[in-house]
């Protein structure tokens, strides 16, 4: 909306979108708008790199354990890709990102398909609790001993009393006559 209202946009413009955003903000709020867009973009890029690096390293540690060689190779690959992304055309970077995100989506879809039976069992437990009149069903990991669950995250036999107390507190108290 800012680009349209600034008067900078021209039909048929075939330039860089970031430059267009910088010029549009500068036209509305002054030259500090260019700096603001640059700083905001730099922070977004930096935090995106950190987040994706974190996800990748955690996945490698899960798959291969604490093998330092694997982590070092991953770190070198990340640095090479960052440098590559800084010097090539944006279209090439976006094409590479599209390919890698597609591969990630396929891996996630395969994982979801593999988890279907587990999810179905847990959903059936949820539905059974709802049919039994439980307003806020609670996941009880002791009902699924065959699943390799983290017992700190998913405790066995969670108390339903705290849920019932919260529901009772939410009900309005009838006025005395």
From TrEMBL:
<dbReference type="InterPro" id="IPR001463">
    <property type="entry name" value="Na/Ala_symport"/>
</dbReference>
<keyword id="KW-0813">Transport</keyword>
<feature type="region of interest" description="Disordered">
    <location>
        <begin position="145"/>
        <end position="177"/>
    </location>
</feature>
<keyword id="KW-0472">Membrane</keyword>
<keyword id="KW-1133">Transmembrane helix</keyword>
<comment type="similarity">
    <text>Belongs to the alanine or glycine:cation symporter (AGCS) (TC 2.A.25) family.</text>
</comment>
<dbReference type="GO" id="GO:0005886">
    <property type="term" value="C:plasma membrane"/>
</dbReference>
<keyword id="KW-0812">Transmembrane</keyword>
<dbReference type="Pfam" id="PF01235">
    <property type="entry name" value="Na_Ala_symp"/>
</dbReference>
<feature type="transmembrane region" description="Helical">
    <location>
        <begin position="35"/>
        <end position="56"/>
    </location>
</feature>
<feature type="transmembrane region" description="Helical">
    <location>
        <begin position="68"/>
        <end position="87"/>
    </location>
</feature>
<protein>
    <submittedName>
        <fullName>Sodium/alanine transporter</fullName>
    </submittedName>
</protein>
<dbReference type="GO" id="GO:0005283">
    <property type="term" value="F:amino acid:sodium symporter activity"/>
</dbReference>
<feature type="transmembrane region" description="Helical">
    <location>
        <begin position="93"/>
        <end position="116"/>
    </location>
</feature>
<keyword id="KW-1003">Cell membrane</keyword>
